[in-house]
Design goal:
mainly alpha, 5 helices, 0% strand
Length: 84
């Protein structure tokens, strides 16, 4: 019994660590750069603030990134977004 536990426990810890590494890598990719968020919060537009309040940081940053591309892409992004 002790021999099985001495083999099983390290294997379980190793699989847990590998699983957590995969979760951490996905979270690392999804994080927002601090500079982008600071710039968004320094000079927000009303639609970006509304998106930040209703849908969270990711949608507000999406609108913020579209800000520099011109007015046509903003309208297209709004049309493609389905309102709840």
């Amino acid at each position: 019994m002790t021999a099985w536990l001495s083999v099983l426990v390290p294997l379980l810890v190793m699989f847990f660590a590998l699983g957590m590494e995969r979760v951490e890598s996905r979270l690392r990719e999804a994080t927002v750069r601090q500079e982008e968020l600071d710039e968004l919060l320094e000079q927000p537009r009303p639609d970006e603030v509304r998106a930040l309040f209703r849908q969270g940081t990711s949608r507000a940053l999406e609108l913020f990134r579209l800000r520099g591309r011109g007015p046509g892409t903003r309208r297209a992004a709004r049309r493609s977004k389905v309102s709840p």
